[in-house]
Design goal:
Layout: H1 4-27, H2 38-52, H3 57-63, H4 68-79, H5 89-96, E1 103-104, H6 105-111, H7 117-129, E2 133-136, E3 143-146, H8 149-157, H9 162-173, H10 178-185, H11 189-201, E4 206-207, E5 213-214, H12 228-248, H13 253-258, H14 275-279, H15 281-301, E6 317-319, E7 328-330
Antiparallel strand pairs: 1-3, 2-3, 4-5, 6-7
């Protein structure tokens, strides 16, 4: 493994590239997505992942440059409300606003007086911008009401791309319970349920006897606007998983040699003798993988699968950058 200084440079640049991607997503198509919780969420997710990897909290605190007591307090603040133990501040505020009446900002701040005021205001802003809470008025005169189950269901039925995103999560990470999907998407159960029923009716997912959602396949048609978000996340997740597996050197010797990634760059121009050969690489990759998948599916349909199986994910992308090629081309067909 690389020395600490090299690893730090790598981490810094991965964070920068991820930040660029998040900023592009937050502003694409003229939409301004809420980012109020992003810094806190990144900290909490990192802390939880370090804990899952068996890193002690003392070591984790040192990695963040914090005293152990400060680290523990920060994790606790982000994990649960100081006013309502056992619930996150986000959950607690949403629950307080779900009584069916308008609640003023002053009432909310008084109810959660033991929590930092800026955190409470940030949660209110995030809940409004994600559509879970309605707001009327502004400033201290603002009042809030949580969306009803019917309103969330109606909102969910009109959310383009959500169905495909859920399908992708279930296929890649499943089987998943409804509660886990709510946790990963930040949506209420009513909004999730509408999309899950549509996926079941379409034969894209099935539900186990224990109530888990699972998917045997995932196909996002090339160029489909409703699956753009799912395809983008699937590409990103594939790259991250490949890099993580490579660093862990998981699998047997043959898998370790075959797994990984390769990146090639070509400098071409209009009427270059190899222009079409280069620009058709992704198209040929899609065609080859689609034909291979069909052959594998036909074989698997008539063959008893062993208990131990292996899912292999292959990712291909092409980005043409130049005076007349500023956009990236990515494969959507999974």
């Amino acid at each position: 493994m690389a020395p600490p200084m090299t690893r730090q440079v790598l981490i810094d640049n991965i964070v920068r590239q991820t930040t660029i991607l998040i900023a592009q997503l937050a502003t694409s198509g003229g939409v301004r997505s809420p980012l109020a919780r992003i810094a806190d969420q990144v900290f909490l997710d990192l802390a939880r992942e370090l804990d899952a990897q068996g890193i002690s909290r003392k070591v984790s605190a040192d990695m963040f440059g914090m005293a152990l007591r400060s680290y523990r307090r920060r994790v606790r603040q982000l994990s649960e409300s100081s006013t309502e133990r056992g619930r996150s501040l986000w959950e607690a505020v949403l629950g307080f606003l779900s009584g069916g009446r308008l609640v003023t900002r002053v009432e909310v701040l008084e109810r959660f007086a033991r929590d930092e005021e800026e955190l409470v205001k940030g949660v209110l802003t995030d809940l409004c911008e994600t559509g879970l809470v309605f707001r009327t008025g502004a400033g201290r005169g603002a009042a809030y009401r949580a969306a009803t189950t019917e309103e969330l269901a109606d909102l969910g039925s009109r959310s383009d791309g959500l169905r495909e995103l859920l399908w992708m999560l279930i296929y890649r990470e499943g089987p998943l319970a409804d509660a886990e999907l709510c946790k990963r998407t930040g949506l209420e159960a009513a909004a999730i349920e509408v999309k899950l029923e549509e996926l079941v009716d379409a034969g894209r997912i099935t539900r186990t006897e224990s109530g888990l959602n699972q998917a045997e396949s995932l196909v996002l048609p090339l160029g489909s606007p409703s699956g753009a978000e799912a395809a983008l996340f699937d590409h990103y997740q594939a790259v991250v998983k490949t890099m993580c597996a490579r660093m862990r050197r998981t699998g047997n010797a043959k898998q370790a040699v075959e797994a990984g990634g390769s990146t090639y760059s070509f400098t071409i121009w209009a009427d270059h003798p190899h222009e079409e050969e280069v620009l058709s690489l992704l198209r040929n990759f899609r065609q080859h993988c689609s034909e291979l998948r069909e052959r594998i599916e036909r074989y698997n349909e008539n063959t008893a699968a062993p208990a131990e199986q292996m899912r292999v994910t292959v990712y291909g992308g092409l980005c043409a950058v130049g005076d007349e090629a500023d956009d990236s081309e990515q494969g959507d067909d999974e």
